[in-house]
Amino acid sequence: MSEIYLPAILLDIPRNAVAAIGLPLCLGILSGSSTAKVVRGDWYKNLRGPPGRPPRQVFPAVWPLLYLSMGYASHLAVNALDTASSPLTRSDVKLGIALYYAQLAMNFIWSPLFFNGKKLGLALIDSVLLAGTTFYMTKLLDGPTKSQSTYLLLPYCAWLTFATYLNGGIWWLNRGQTPKKD
């Protein structure tokens, strides 16, 4: 397996716990900043949802906690990289950190796809890839962080599973409808 290259800044950011936590939190705020208007509009209110769809007020309460936990998990991952002596462990952690940034990007584009673009199918594809990437990242980082990152990432994995179910249900129940402008 070839060595994964990560630019120094991608390792330096999570070395600082505050920066590690702040990055996903800031990206989440930026990504979701335009959704408040959309979720109060007719398009969102008229979407049919699957069973178990929580009230919209749940999401802004849950996401910041998930961003904080994933950010701290990235801090633990870089600490594990810095102390790893085995080339295989270093390789797994580097791949896990690369996947961390990949899932951050997918997480960042989900809200604009779903809410602003009203592209439910594309958002669902993004959500499936996001969940799969996050599960694999969690697996890779488990051993090197002595399961500490897993405890932080499991709620995120569970929420992504639920969010993918919701996205899939909304896509299925509303397929064929033309999104209306709000």
UniProtKB/TrEMBL annotation:
GO biological process: tetrapyrrole metabolic process
Entry keyword set: Membrane, Transmembrane, Transmembrane helix
Membrane topology classification: Multi-pass membrane protein
Any single Gene Ontology cellular-component annotation: mitochondrial outer membrane
Chief localization: membrane
CDD domains cross-referenced by the UniProt entry: TSPO_MBR
Cell location: Membrane
Residue intervals passing through the bilayer: 17-38, 58-78, 98-115, 122-141, 153-173
Pfam families, alphabetized: TspO_MBR
Origin: domain of life: Eukaryota
UniProt family annotation: Belongs to the TspO/BZRP family.
Name of the protein described by the UniProt record: TspO/MBR-like protein
Native organism: Armillaria gallica (Bulbous honey fungus)
